[in-house]
Fold Branched-chain amino acid ABC transporter permease.
Amino acid sequence: MVVQSLAQPLVNGILLGGLYALIGIGMSMVFGIMKLTNLAHGDLLILSSYLSFGITQSLGLNPLLTVILVTPVMFFVGYAFQNLLLNRMLGKGAESPMLVTFGISIILQNSLLAIFSPDARALTSNLASQSVIITNYLSIPVIYLVDFFAACFVILILNFFLKKTYPGRAIRAASDDGNVAKLMGINIKRIYSIAMGIAMMTAAIAGVLVGMTYNFYPYTGTQYLIIAFGVVVIGGMGSIGGTLVAGVILGLAQVLGAHFFGTEMQLLSGYIVLLAMLVLRPQGLFGHN
């Protein structure tokens, strides 16, 4: 009976972890390559949700199909963000880029608030109401399955891109040693801009799926920034593969915390796991000293 009662929260936690991994992978990538903490990550993710919302309202597309339009738009947003703002801060310490991203976060939140109002929005889809019935004690929400497999797909594609393509190898070279990469003829600033664009493409996919799974508001970017931080810290700074494991751990911690101690303990359970990781292994599960 105990196993039956735990089956549903365990499955939900694992599948939710996929969405958390997708939320955090862009931040992990940016930190690993540029050693940059992007405080606007959550708000750029929510911007993707609103872009998808606007497209569905205008063209009547299924929200899942809007990924095809939103991801290239967010690539150019990320590229311009890095090229026009953050590249100018290179070599000026970690504080200057962080302050720039904080400023962008505030601008995005207030812009979305002015355009869309503070009302809750959602990307309505049939997937949100469908479930796969396994047993009388276990059913799997279809939208959670989509979130999880999308995360696995994005991580596999990103790993392939970074290891098997010339731009990916150039990004890794710039991450390992920027000065040596320059001597090899790599344009560091351009590579950083491409890396930020790719990170924003992952945030765009996460933003669409977040909008299909939950309601969102102009100011909920902060909530997803904290989730991204948790994934990055648990998985290890810059570890792409570690984000999935970290997302599952964080998702399980929150869902099981809510199951055993009540819904008011859901977020706290995740923060306790995050704090334990910082104490026991501050470099993360897959990070390096």
